[in-house]
């Protein structure tokens, strides 16, 4: 599974509609409204790198109200379980 984190600047008057349209794009698993330098963060999960262009350039960037995107590819996923195991010394409580 390939995961991309897409930072989205949107028309501030249309953030809820933009978020819903982005969430409806196949390959987008979550959309978050956030504070900071961007308005939305979309999580994209696909099985092949070629699909990223279809989802991001072909769909997300074409959503009316999306002004700019910045995409980051995830190398590795760390879950709480992974972090707990990494710090486990093997001692019983």
Automatic annotation (TrEMBL):
Molecular function per GO: sequence-specific DNA binding
Q: Report the record's Gene Ontology biological process terms.
A: response to amino acid
Q: Name any one Pfam family assigned in the record.
A: AsnC_trans_reg
Where is it found, in Gene Ontology cellular component terms? cytosol
Protein name in the entry: AsnC family transcriptional regulator
Organism listed in the record: Dermacoccus nishinomiyaensis
């Amino acid at each position: 599974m390939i995961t991309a984190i897409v930072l989205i600047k949107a028309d501030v008057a249309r953030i809820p509609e933009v978020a819903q349209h982005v969430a409806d794009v196949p390959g987008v698993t979550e959309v978050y409204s956030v504070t900071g330098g961007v308005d939305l963060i979309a999580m994209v999960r696909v099985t092949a790198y070629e699909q990223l262009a279809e989802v991001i350039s072909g769909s997300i960037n074409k959503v009316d109200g999306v002004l700019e995107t910045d995409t980051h590819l995830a190398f590795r996923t760390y879950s709480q379980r992974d972090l707990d195991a990494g710090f486990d010394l093997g001692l019983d409580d």
